[in-house]
Each structure stands twice: as structure tokens, then as C-alpha cells.
Amino acid sequence: MRGVAIDTPSLLAEEATLAALLRCCVREVAGPRGLVWPAPPYVLLRIAGTLLRARAYGGAALRFEGPPERLEDGSWRPLTADELVLLVEADLQGAGDNGEFAGQVAASRAAVAAILRARAEAVPPADPWLASEQALVYGHPFHPSPKARGGSGWLDYAPEAHAEFPLRLLGVREDVLAEEGDAAVLDSLGAAPAGYRLLPAHPWQLGLLRPAFGPELLDLGPGPSVLPTSSVRTVYAPDAEVCLKFSLDVRITNCVRKNAWYELAGAVELTSRLRPVFDELAIRHPATRWLPEPGYRSAALGTRLREGLGVIVRQSPWSVCSPGVTPVLAAALALDAPARDPLAWWAAYVSVVALPVLELYFAHGVVLEPHLQNVLVGLDASGLPVQAVFRDLEGTKLVADRHDLDGLHPEVAAALAYDAGRGWARVVYCLLVNHLTEIAATLAGADDGLLRELWRTARDLLAKQAGDLGWPLPFSDLLAGAPLPAKANLGVRWARAADRAAGYVPIANPLA
Ligand SMILES: Nc1ncnc2c1ncn2[C@@H]1O[C@H](COP(=O)(O)OP(=O)(O)OP(=O)(O)O)[C@@H](O)[C@H]1O
Ligand SMILES: [Mg+2]
Predict the structure, then answer these.
(1) Could you tell me if the CB of 160 is within 6 A of ligand 1?
(2) In a domain, 221, yes or no
């Protein structure tokens, strides 16, 4: 053996980075211009005049097998992520330029390699729910820089590296306490001096924010240990059995993860409005669970600190699942679905996950954001999906003309409301494109026949529900094969726009 050191983490990181960027190119750059051609077992596409190809399977999930290639002087040569970045830059020149893009892609690739190295040395949590939260090594499969994280030191807080770290405890003088709803569980995290209330802080955020300490805000030192969930900024505090959603002034995928003041208030408002809705939903969908966010706490020391230190209390998935049911993050199931009988497993999955989402939209005017990271699936002892847990009220909206939002602060109301069309696009994107497409691709592997059968099964289940609801229009369009809206993550990064400004590109509908 020659002593050639092959750094596997770097190779895997390059492969994943190239694949994610290539998927974005198919979906957002070449696809809408008609420059993608299926040529089984390959998919061919043209970017900036250059022909590219990769072996692909898994329908719209675009799983690649073997190295993507570029045609150069009449022969196929391996394509690298850096080369693809240059092609994207050349192709998108007309849409303005972006000097950050290449750096973000490279940072994401470096982060994946660092995660893989750290993970090889780390011990995964024994709790299967937490292990699933920490399984997303490569992140969003349709994002140009899924794992880019600002600054240094992030590995100490990375869920994928199985980080565990103590909260920092602050004391907020009672007259400058900002709080709504029920955040009493925070008091169990430690002890505050008389006249002060306890405010836990994420240590990474505290380092970024550097608040001035003084009589209104005390530094009380380290608190209990917590474990980060898949979103990085939401952590689980095992002793208090609660999730805490912090602000984190770091860009993760498309957003700097700050809890805006109107989102803090909105979470509490939505929690009280959604309780009766989910109670009613349970009559027809008893397998549906959700994670209430009953309260938040912060310091009323100006908008910067109120938002930067704001923490939302969220119930934990274990506390809402029935005994014997194990919550597992849907995104982890999209990597590895434990199905002995894929068709039966899929039918159970679609029933518990998709049907309540559609019922909420049509019967209650509630728009969930059921992408792979916002849904947990409750598996029974045999591994079959028997419950679904929906979370993340920041992405949950009320259809404006079906809910009376008068009386709320206008900014709180605006952040809570969606018009029906925007809401429907969000539901269809999250549920079908982001979520079910990935689960189906994992179940089917390279078996195209099985993939078609899975979608036939989904169609039958959805058609039955559309019938029960009286075939409302966008639902019947969907079942008739109207194209699906796919969120344009490359486009929004290229434009350096806010996530909420992200557009959609139409893609083929597997229910057709
Ligand atoms: N398939 C996926 N779709 C969407 N997000 C994904 C996916 N895979 C990984 N992610 C990651 O999950 C997070 C989704 O962001 P989202 O806004 O839902 O969460 P959050 O509001 O920060 O936190 P929480 O979900 O705890 O409320 C991002 O960090 C994103 O990179
Ligand atoms: Mg989320």
C-alpha cells in the first residue's frame, strides 16, 4: 500500500455539495428554461452552455448515482462543485451578480467535512428522537449551501456533531421582564436573586450579542446542559423536559435566525388559537399531535435585546406522543426509512402526515409548514407510522379571510396571516415537494415501478379526502396533475433576498 491519505470526509462533503447544487440547477436554472432532458439512466441539463449529466433516480428527489459529468471537447469528464459554481455564476449573470455565492457554497462544503470528522469521534444520544434530530449531516437536499454557518466555533453547538453544552443563565430585573403566556418552566432551570427572573441564553448567541450587564441584566453563570435539535437554535433541556427556541444571529440556509418581537408574541397567540382547532381536528384525525409554544420570555431592553435574547418555550415531542410511540424526525426518515413492507408503511405515513395538513387548510384555514424538519412521525414498536407531530409556529399561518385578527397588534397580525393562494402554495411545497417526494424516493430506491405505486397509493388516499371535503378547487387541481410549486432556494440566495420573498418554480406532479 502506498501512503496516499484519502480524506473521506472531504470527498463526501464535495460529493454532497455538488449534488445539492446540481439539484438546484435542474430545478431552478435549467428546468424552467426547458434545458433538462431525461435520458435514462441519465438526466442531462445545460448550464451556461455546458452540457452536464448524472445518473439519477427517485423522481423529483433527484438522487444521483456515481459522479456527475460535464461534456468537454466531446468527452465526459468529472464535474466538481467549484466548476458548477462558475457555471452557475456565468448562467445567472443576467440576474445581477453575487460575490458571496461561491464562498457560501465552499463554507457549506467545509462545514460538512468538519461535521463528518467530529461525528466520527462523538457519541450519539441514546434517545432515538434526539438521535434523529442530529442525523442531518448533509442538510437540505435542494439548497446551494445547506450547511453554511457564520463565524467560527459553531461545531461546539452543532447537533450533527452531537454537541451538548450548558445554557447561560441571566437574571432579568422584574420591571424590565418581557413575557407573555406561560413561561414558568424557565424558573426551574436555576435560581435568580430576589427581584429578578431567570432568562436562559444560548451561549453562542450570547457571544454574538454581547449584551451589557448591569443592574437590569445579570450574568448568573452556566446552567443545565442542553442538546441541540436539527434547527441548531432550538435545544432540548432534558431535566425540564422542554424545548427552548432561541434567537441565533447566524444565517442558517436562508434566514438569520432571530425571533422577531412580533413572532415571539405570535407564537403565544397562535398557541391559544390553535388549541381548539387541533381538538376539533382530533375527532377525525386522532393520530395528530402538535407542539404548543405556550410562552416566551425576554428582556425589555430595546428591540435588539428583546429579540436577541427572546426564548420561546415549546413542549417536547415525547410529552405529546402516546406511550409506546417513538417520535422520529421526518428528515431522518427521508435518509433511512425502516420499512419492511414499503407500501403499507407509506400508506400509514401519508395517512398520519398528509391528511391532517390538508384538513387543517380546507376546514380550518390553518397553514402548517410541514417540511421535513418541522414534522416528527410517531413510530410504534414495529416501526409503523401511527402518529404525526407538527411543530414550529413561526411557519404556521392563518388564512386571512377565515380568521378574525382584529385586536392584535398590526405587525403581529401581519406575520400570522397568509392569503389563501400563498398558503396553498406553501402547504403543497412543504408537504409534497419537500417532504413526501423525499420519503417516497427513499422507500423506492432505484425501483421506478415501486415509486409509481407509492404515488398511486398517495393519490387514492388524497382523493378520498378531497371527496370528503367536497372536491375544493385547488385540491382537485392538484389531483388532476397541476404542477407543484418548488421553492427556489438557489434563486433566493442568489438574489440575497429574505426567505419570505422566495419564489416557486413549477415541477411535474407525481400524483398525475
Ligand atoms: N428538507 C428540509 N427542508 C427544510 N429545512 C431543512 C430541511 N433539511 C434541513 N433543514 C434545516 O432545518 C431548518 C428549518 O428551518 P425552520 O425555519 O423550519 O426552523 P427554525 O424555525 O429555525 O427552528 P424550529 O424548527 O425548531 O422551530 C433549517 O436549519 C434548515 O437548514
Ligand atoms: Mg422548523
Answers:
(1) no
(2) yes
